[in-house]
């Protein structure tokens, strides 16, 4: 005996966060009637969904007063551990007694676990502690928390859960709705405008020197400068925002006042260079005011350069002002060592003696520096970027360099006796290499030893060890040999005796009133912008589609449901409607908005989330869950209309459910025998929901729909749980429809217990077919595969296979289309018919749509036929096309299809077609078995890598009335005709040069270049001397007369008349390859980068040994007809074939012959080409536009 009395509706609650790990949890409430009278051997069953698993919970009365609770998980794939808490329905289990708390582990081998309840457990259950309702029902709550998986491998995500996992989040605790305008942080960060991290680091460092901030607030604002060009005003605004708000704060106003545009803010610059330039600019603006000495009093110091004679009493001293000190890191390990190196004396002896004037003459002397006064705020610049003479490059030194928190600078001063202690308050770090990187700052913001990392907009507190020792550079750990990419670049020390005055607190009252007013207005603007941004971030434009989209794909030979690709174009064929939703919309609101867009009552359609081509969840109509809580967030919703029969069936069920709920008090008098019969019916419904019939084709069950509705209604009444809605998409395979044999029929809305035969009854009814017509069915296990549907072996649950939205393809016999007058006209969402006219793919010509004589007999064969295809670029000497062809067709059919699309005269009985893959000189040799060998077998060794976007290119050459056997042991040679009058230079759509006349010639293996020229000379009828020039797109060479064709075919070849001036080469002359880049062509954009093209192939040019390059350059310009305006914008460089030897930028006064290396060649192009391609021409160092503050 089983009694299944589950509760009204399961509640999915938000995940708990415990020990730093997010854990899924689920609560199920269980209302058990007449539980005291459950006899031995009886079981009470509860079944629910806990994504991605299906739980079956059974409470069984074993013997005496012993109850056991069994937990069983369907389709468990990996080992999982769950925390099980059993308590009263409306109480907190952690504060309530009695309650049970157990941890269970489930494996794929043992998916069933049990909890044995104590004998006295039920004796403790009372109405007072919440376990018993007023009418005597047992009210249990089961809380299940998924613990960390013990599986050794990560579980794969399920195809789709059975119910939608939407947390019940209220508006008060919703993190989406109540997001603050600014992220909370201890201090305000600064927004990075592109590459302004160097500026942000300096600005933060200066801001947290309170005396400097106070000076800025005191600056006078000039009236003769506009606000946008006023640096002091915008700096005050910036500091005021940083002091009064939590940020992050924009620096746009400040950079605009510098006179910078978008180009400047995206340029990488040096932090120390900006610091020096910025302070100089401010100091200049303070001249003539009461603050004219403010900047020097903070940052200025002095040192003395001296030269002291050793033997006479004579010295030369020069006092200089310093704002920062550049210290070496190369060859030293610490700050103290670097200071010692800085003040080291240099002996002036021998030939380098110092001239002490007329009185003393030349004397041995020592030259050095001594610090007379250090600044109160000391900036130390570590020289990590240095020139390396061995590589002829600038490099970055990330070597180990330590620095202390407190340093005594007295040993490096003139007064070495008086201590001069400085404390570390800032470390500016550079992460990256010489090519590029990122700056951020570690700062002590107060006199307390608390460090913060200021990384643009992000501000976080760090340990002193992270800020200091973590910035020393060197290797990451003892086991590592590679150096860190980040290390300290600037250090900020402040004199201990001046800390009180430097760190005097800056009160808000010091901020000027006009800055307060500006910030108030700015905050209001920020709030409005933040609200607008919040609305934008939480607005989701979702495409509503219905069954027309399925037909759209079916007509294109695809079995799937998704937003059509035309959705992204202006014309979507009426297949989609836009629905604008908010992430904080309740799911009930989603139906209300869809109701307005669809112009139909919300109770006459169901909505399902659509993601990645699959139906994921059915959206409950009256749920209080939030749309934004659905993960993944759908980009589309599938709308399925509810027909009249389903609508009234649902209404009856809901009415009966309400009646049942109102009469709960009378259920205690129900007869046990009736309960037993009902439970047996329910068990049978789960176990075998399909009624046995002899065969689908002879089913005479005319009342199956009514019968199914009755069973479904009874099932709902017994379980009191809203059953999950499943969708079955029914398609037809009509072999007679040559172009598109797949057609959408209808969507079947089903429940777990529904009779699957009803689909076939509905299908006959839909097409007005007799009941005895024969049908065969397939279901889609994945988009590219169909499986035969065996009605005797499979039920609805196996068909669904835990995925909503399964496809069932029913095949009509040949002749049914005309015999029963089936109409396949289809309407879009606007009511217009579509696909009335055949449409061809503009990109690829389909073999199936254009060349296939008849469709395969079975739907499964057809799907495999159309999905297992390959796109190939086929060409002849005069044409080129992109085709799509199935792997299964014969290579003979490929040749016929290629001849058809390329418009080649080809008779397979008498002619031979040779197919050359990817410019290979060897043709695909099938040994004459084209009919037996498939396309897949023929081309599988030539297909590009799956990760490549390249397509296989097949060159098709037809030789009339020649046998296939005549072509053994030959090689195809592709030679550009550079001679004929009709050989004209043309450009393609990207501006790339194309040569129209290509010679395709087969030569026997072993034939040399001289013999090939003789053969071609006969065809071209040229009496002039000829040569073959080979190139690899980088440089060209003249092919030696005795080079065999086997070697020549590896290059691009061009036959040309030997120029008159190159037929005799004197001893002071030489030939060199020249390549012209980006003069007449344009760059085109591919995969987020510009591709630069040659202006034609490289060519051979004659040079003179003793001429300066300016003369050679002019001759090249004349030969290539380069206009005078373009000549001014062109650079030449001598390029080596090896990257190690690098490239040399040619200067007009140089002599080319003195610079030649073996294998080098000349390239010329726009002056900015080298700078735009540093990865290609790495040996050229270009100085980008100098950092400058314009105002």
From TrEMBL:
Region: Disordered; residue ranges are: 1-20, 652-705
* Skewed-composition ranges (Polar residues): 1-10
Which parts of the chain span the membrane according to its record? none
A molecular function annotated in GO for this UniProt entry is: cysteine-type deubiquitinase activity
Q: Where is the composition biased (Basic and acidic residues)?
A: 674-685
Segments forming domain USP? 188-496
- One biological process GO term for this chain? regulation of protein stability
| Entry GO terms, CC | cytosol; nucleus
Low complexity biased stretches: 695-705
Record protein name field: USP domain-containing protein
Organism in which the protein naturally occurs? Tritrichomonas foetus
What lineage, starting at the top, does this entry show? Eukaryota, Metamonada, Parabasalia, Tritrichomonadida, Tritrichomonadidae
């Amino acid at each position: 005996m089983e009694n299944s009395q589950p509760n009204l509706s399961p509640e999915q609650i938000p995940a708990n966060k415990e020990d730093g790990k997010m854990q899924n949890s689920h609560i199920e409430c269980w209302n058990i009637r007449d539980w005291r009278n459950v006899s031995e051997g009886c079981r009470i069953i509860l079944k629910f969904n806990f994504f991605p698993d299906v739980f079956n919970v059974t409470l069984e009365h074993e013997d005496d007063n012993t109850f056991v609770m069994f937990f069983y998980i369907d389709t468990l794939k990996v080992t999982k551990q769950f925390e099980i808490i059993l308590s009263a329905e409306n109480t907190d289990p952690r504060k309530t007694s009695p309650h049970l708390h157990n941890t269970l582990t489930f494996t794929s081998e043992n998916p069933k676990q049990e909890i044995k309840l104590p004998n006295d457990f039920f004796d403790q259950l009372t109405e007072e502690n919440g376990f018993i309702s007023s009418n005597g029902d047992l009210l249990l709550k089961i809380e299940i928390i998924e613990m960390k998986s013990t599986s050794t491998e990560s579980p794969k995500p399920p195809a789709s859960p059975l119910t939608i996992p939407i947390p019940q989040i209220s508006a008060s605790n919703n993190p989406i709705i109540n997001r603050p305008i600014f992220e909370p942080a201890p201090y305000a960060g600064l927004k990075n405008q592109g590459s302004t991290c160097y500026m942000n680091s300096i600005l933060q460092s200066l801001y947290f020197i309170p005396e400097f901030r106070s000076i800025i607030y005191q600056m006078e604002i000039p009236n003769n400068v506009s606000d946008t060009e006023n640096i002091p005003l915008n700096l005050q605004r910036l500091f005021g925002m940083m002091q009064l708000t939590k940020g992050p704060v924009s620096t746009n106003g400040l950079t605009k006042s510098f006179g910078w545009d978008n180009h400047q803010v995206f340029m990488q610059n040096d932090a120390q260079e900006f610091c020096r330039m910025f302070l100089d600019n401010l100091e200049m603006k303070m001249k003539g005011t009461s603050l004219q000495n403010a900047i020097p009093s903070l940052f200025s110091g002095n040192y003395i350069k001296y030269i002291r004679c050793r033997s006479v009493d004579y010295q030369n001293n020069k006092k200089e002002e310093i704002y920062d000190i550049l210290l070496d890191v190369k060859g030293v390990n610490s700050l103290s060592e670097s200071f010692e190196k800085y003040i080291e004396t240099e002996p002036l002896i021998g030939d380098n003696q110092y001239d002490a004037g007329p009185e003393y003459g030349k004397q041995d002397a020592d030259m050095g520096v001594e610090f007379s006064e250090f600044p109160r705020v000391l900036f130390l610049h570590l020289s990590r970027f240095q020139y390396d003479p061995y590589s002829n490059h600038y490099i970055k030194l990330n070597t180990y360099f330590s620095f202390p928190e407190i340093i005594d600078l007295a040993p490096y001063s003139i007064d070495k006796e008086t201590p001069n202690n400085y404390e570390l308050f800032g470390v500016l770090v550079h992460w990256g290499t010489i090519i590029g990187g990122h700056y951020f700052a570690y700062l002590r913001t107060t006199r307390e030893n608390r460090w913060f990392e200021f990384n643009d907009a992000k501000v976080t507190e760090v340990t002193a060890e992270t800020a200091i020792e973590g910035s020393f550079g060197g290797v990451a750990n003892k086991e590592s040999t590679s150096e860190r990419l980040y290390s300290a670049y600037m250090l900020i020390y402040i004199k201990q005796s001046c800390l009180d005055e430097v760190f005097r607190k800056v009160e808000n009252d010091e901020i000027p009133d006009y800055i307060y007013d500006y910030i108030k207005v700015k905050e209001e603007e920020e709030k409005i912008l933040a609200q607008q941004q919040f609305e934008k971030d939480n607005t989701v434009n979702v495409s509503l589609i219905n069954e027309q989209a399925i037909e759209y794909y079916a007509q294109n030979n695809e079995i799937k449901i998704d937003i059509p690709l035309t959705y992204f174009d202006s014309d979507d064929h009426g297949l989609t409607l836009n629905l604008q939703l908010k992430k904080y919309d309740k799911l009930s609101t989603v139906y209300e908005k869809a109701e307005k867009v669809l112009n139909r009552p919300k109770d006459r359609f169901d909505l399902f989330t659509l993601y990645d081509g699959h139906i994921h969840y059915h959206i409950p109509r009256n749920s209080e869950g939030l749309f934004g809580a659905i993960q993944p967030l759908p980009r589309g919703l599938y709308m399925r209309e509810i027909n009249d029969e389903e609508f009234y069936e649902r209404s009856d069920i809901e009415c009966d459910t309400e009646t049942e709920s109102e009469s709960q008090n009378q259920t205690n008098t129900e007869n046990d025998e009736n309960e037993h019969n009902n439970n047996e019916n329910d068990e049978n419904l789960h176990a075998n929901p399909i009624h046995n019939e002899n065969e689908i084709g002879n089913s005479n069950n005319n009342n199956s729909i009514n019968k199914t509705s009755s069973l479904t209604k009874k099932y709902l009444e017994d379980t009191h749980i809203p059953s999950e809605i499943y969708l079955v998409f029914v398609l037809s395979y009509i072999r007679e429809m040559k172009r598109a044999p797949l057609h959408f029929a209808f969507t079947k809305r089903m429940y777990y217990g529904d009779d699957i035969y009803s689909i076939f009854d509905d299908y006959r009814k839909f097409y007005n077919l007799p009941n005895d017509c024969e049908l065969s069915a397939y279901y889609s296990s994945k988009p590219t595969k169909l499986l035969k549907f065996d009605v005797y072996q499979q039920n609805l649950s196996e068909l669904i296979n835990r995925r909503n939205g399964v496809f069932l393809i029913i095949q009509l016999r040949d002749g049914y289309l005309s015999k029963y007058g089936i109409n396949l006209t289809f309407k879009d969402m606007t009511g217009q018919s579509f696909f009335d006219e055949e449409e061809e793919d503009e990109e690829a010509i389909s073999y199936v749509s254009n060349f296939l004589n008849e469709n395969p007999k079975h739907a499964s064969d057809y799907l495999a036929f159309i999905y297992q295809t390959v796109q190939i670029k086929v060409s002849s000497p005069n044409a080129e096309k992109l085709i799509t062809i199935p792997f299964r067709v014969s290579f003979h059919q490929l040749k016929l299809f290629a001849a058809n699309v390329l418009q080649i005269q080809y008779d397979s009985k008498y002619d031979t077609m040779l197919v050359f893959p990817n410019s290979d000189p060897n043709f695909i040799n099938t040994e004459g078995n084209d009919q037996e060998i498939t396309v897949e077998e023929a081309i599988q060794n030539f297909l590009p890598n799956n990760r490549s976007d390249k397509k296989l290119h097949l060159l098709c050459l037809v030789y009339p009335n020649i046998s296939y056997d005549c072509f053994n042991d030959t090689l195809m040679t592709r030679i550009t005709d550079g001679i004929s009058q009709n050989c004209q230079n043309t450009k393609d759509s990207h501006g790339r040069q194309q040569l129209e006349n290509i010679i395709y010639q087969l030569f026997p293996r072993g034939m040399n270049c001289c013999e090939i020229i003789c053969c071609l000379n006969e065809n071209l009828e040229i009496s002039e001397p000829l040569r073959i020039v080979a190139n690899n797109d980088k440089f060209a060479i003249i092919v030696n007369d005795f080079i065999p064709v086997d070697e020549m075919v590896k290059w691009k070849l061009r036959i040309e008349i030997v120029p008159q001036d190159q037929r005799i080469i004197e001893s002071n002359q030489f030939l060199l390859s020249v390549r012209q880049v980006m003069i007449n062509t344009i760059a085109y954009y591919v995969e987020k980068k510009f591709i630069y093209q040659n202006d034609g192939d490289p060519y051979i040019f004659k040079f003179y040994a003793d001429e300066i390059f300016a003369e050679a350059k002019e001759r090249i310009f004349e030969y290539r007809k380069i206009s005078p305006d373009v000549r001014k914008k062109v650079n030449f460089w001598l390029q080596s074939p090896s990257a190690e030897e690098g490239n040399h930028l040619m200067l007009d006064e140089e002599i080319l012959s003195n610079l030649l290396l073996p294998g080098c060649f000349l390239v010329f192009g726009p002056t900015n080409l080298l700078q735009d391609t540093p990865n290609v021409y790495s040996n050229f160092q270009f100085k980008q536009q100098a950092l400058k503050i314009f105002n």
